[in-house]
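Question: I have long wanted to understand how a fold can be written as C-alpha cells. Here is the record:
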Amino acid sequence: MVEPRPVREQVELDTVTYAERLHYVPGLARPRFPPWQRGWHDPWHSPGPRYEEMPLYKERGCFICHQGVRMLEGVRQAQWLTKTKLVEGLPPAVQGIVDNPALGLQELEERAKHVVSHARLWDTAEAAPRREKYCPVLFENLIHICRSMSGKYPSLSKRMLARNCRIAATWERESILLQVRGLSGILMNSMTPIPPVASKEEILATKEHVLETFYPIAPTIDLQEVNVYKELNDTGFRDGYPYSHPHTLFFLESASVRTDRFRPEQLRAKMLMFAFGNALAKAKALHGNDPKVLEQPVVVQSIGTDGQLFQFMVFQLNTTDLVSNDGVKNLVWIDSDQNLYERAQCVPEVKKRVVVVRKTWEIVMEILPFHQSWGSGSWHRAAAGFKPAEVDICLIFTQADVSEGTSS
C-alpha cells in the first residue's frame, strides 16, 4: 500500500482537510478532532489519571526488579546491585551435611529415583510429557521426601510453604534507588532463623573485596524504571506470624517453550536478587531502617530448577549499608548447573517374534532397570543416568536440624 504524501503546513495559511467530505481525499490534510466526551464516567473506557496526578508520583525514578526481569550481565550485575561477594560452591556447613554418612542421606537415593520416574514417566500418558507438567510434580515429590524425615528430625515440622506471597524491599546503591518487589516464588518459612554460615573473620575479610563493574553497561540495565512507587519494606507476613523467618526460596522454570524460560545465568541472578530482598526486608523489620553492619546476619537459601538442571544458593546478609562500595560486603555461595539425572526417555519395543521381544525386555531391564510398561506394552519408559539428589535435600536441613536429630 502506497503511503499518502505528507501535507506541508504553511504558516498563516489555513490547513485544508477532508473533514467535510467524510472520506479520504489525496492531497488534503488529515483532520484532527477534539477528544469525544461521553458525559459520564465509564470505568471500562476511562483513560485513567496521568502519572503526574497520582498521589505516589515522585520526580526521582526507582528501578524495580520483579519476576520478569532478565538481567543482561547475570550474577555479576546482581552482585553489584546487592553489594555481594561470590564464593563458588556450597558453604562448609552445608557441604558437611552432604558428606556426613551418619545422616543417612545416601539411603534416599532409591526414593529419589522413584521420584524422578514418577514425575517424568509414570504421571502422564504422553510419550514425552511437557516441562510445565513434570517440573512441579518433581518439586512436590522432593519436598515430600523432606517432610517424611520430620520423624527423625523434629525441627523439619516447624516449616511452612507459602505460595504467591509478595515481597517489597527498598535500598539505595550509590545514587540509585532500587526495589525488589512482587511475587517471590515458593517460600519456605521457619520458626527459627538459619544460623550464620560465615564466621566474623570471613565477614570482616570482605572489606578488601572489590566489586566487579561492567562499564559502559549501566548496572540498572533491564530493570524497570518507574516514577509511581512507594518506598516500602515488607516481608509479606503480618506481625505475630509464627513462621516469620525466611528459610528457602524455590524457583521453577517450567515453561515448555525454551525462549520463555530463564537461562541458567539469568535464573541465578533472579535467585540472588529475591534472596537478598527477603533477607533485607527481614533485617529491616528486626533492626530498623538505619544502615549498619548486622550483629546477627540473616541467611536465606534458594533453589532453582527447570525439572532437570538445579541451581543451589546460600545468601548471607551482613550489612544494610549498601550505598558505597566500601566496608563489609554480603556473601553468596552458588553451586550451579547440577544435573539431577542425565535423561528420561521412552524405549520402543520391537514386536517381531516372541523370543526377540523377550530378549529385548531383558536387555532393557539390565541396562535401564527403572522402567514401567505402559498401555498395551508397546512402550517401556526408563530413566537412565540418574544422579543422587542429596544436595537438593540437604539444603532443607541446617546444622541445628542435624544436631537435634542426632541427639533424639
Q: What stands out?
A: The radius of gyration is 28 Å. Residues 60-340+389-407 form one domain. The chain has two domains: 60-340+389-407, 344-383.
